[in-house]
Design goal:
Elements: H1 11-25, H2 30-58, H3 61-67, H4 70-78, H5 83-95, H6 101-130, H7 145-164, H8 171-197, H9 201-218, H10 223-235, H11 242-273, H12 286-295
Helix pairs in contact: 1-5, 1-12, 2-3, 2-4, 2-6, 2-7, 2-10, 3-9, 4-9, 5-6, 5-11, 6-10, 7-10, 7-11, 8-9, 8-11, 10-11
Length: about 300
């Protein structure tokens, strides 16, 4: 059976198609980068709130982590833009000459901004909802029921993951935020890449679900999730300054995510599978290339 007829995509075929998709992605308009980035940021914000709500209601945080990846799955299936995945994909296309570094940086900046706008929007409407439009004093234990508990959790996470874990430790904290960002996007890009190895919808969903659950359960740092968490916490009255959010979380985590995706997925896959193996058919799977281009936002 030819590779194009199998549900499984050969690694070399996958890498070649990812490179071509990345080249197309580099030319996507700013409007589409922002719109698709907005969707990705907003859906991850909702998925994060769902995970926290389920964890609080059940008393089992792992159940929340198990449901959280639905947001990532929709991004893969709908071909939206997530800056963390682009850190790997656009690097590969640039190394292969299908894109340039100015085009790649343009993509990263606009998608990061689109993700952030989506996260801010969801953080704002959820802050209004969780506090019942400011009519509930969420700082009091037990106030507001489950919604109040979720709001207090968002505040606690904002304080913990900006000040306690990182700012209070100085340069060591900055390094730890960076390191956890590396691990997070290593797993996230692995999930996106594993999803592309399957041509079936159930296969894609299952493949991306496991690495995403792993990064969430391990408590690693993903910039888009953090854009929601640390905006919502500030809006709910955590007392953390947004300047500290940027310096002690957004900055080191973005750099860590860049290294994790570009080096441990993009560079490794590009280095070992870029050249076609002797037993891989020479003909291109045009259907696969179109599929990957659509899923990775390269229309």
């Amino acid at each position: 059976m030819a590779a194009s007829e199998m549900d499984y995509v050969l690694p070399s075929e996958l890498v070649d198609s990812m490179i071509n998709a990345g080249g197309k992605k580099a030319t996507v308009s700013v409007k589409n980068l922002l719109l698709r980035g907005f969707y990705s940021g907003s859906i991850l914000g909702l998925a994060t709130c769902l995970a926290l709500t389920v964890g609080i209601q059940s008393g089992q945080p792992f159940l929340g982590s198990l449901l959280f990846p639905f947001g990532f799955a929709s991004i893969v299936l709908f071909g939206m833009e997530l800056v963390t995945g682009n850190f790997a994909l656009l690097s590969m296309s640039t190394w292969a000459g299908k894109s340039s570094w100015p085009q790649t940086l343009r993509n990263w900046v606009w998608v990061w901004l689109g993700n952030f706008i989506g996260c801010v929007f969801v953080a704002a409407i959820l802050a209004i909802s969780l506090s019942s439009a400011g009519t509930v004093e969420i700082s009091a234990d037990g106030a507001g029921g489950v919604w109040g508990a979720v709001a207090r959790k968002l505040i606690a996470l904002n304080q913990l993951n900006v000040e306690t874990k990182y700012m209070d430790l100085g340069s060591t904290g900055f390094f730890l935020a960076f390191l956890r960002g590396v691990i997070a996007n290593w797993l996230v890009c692995l999930g996106v890449t594993m999803a592309l190895v399957s041509k079936s919808v159930p296969g894609k969903i299952l493949a991306c679900w496991l690495p995403i659950t792993a990064f969430q359960t391990m408590g690693m740092e993903h910039i888009v999730v953090n854009q929601f968490l640390h905006t919502a916490g500030v809006l709910l009255g955590s007392g953390v300054s947004f300047g500290n959010v940027i310096l002690w979380n957004f900055l080191p985590v973005t750099i860590g995510n860049l290294v994790g995706g570009m080096v441990f997925i993009g560079m490794v896959f590009y280095s070992t599978h870029r050249s076609r193996l002797a037993n891989v058919p020479d003909e291109k799977d045009i259907k696969l290339e179109r599929e990957i281009a659509a899923q990775m936002g390269g229309r």
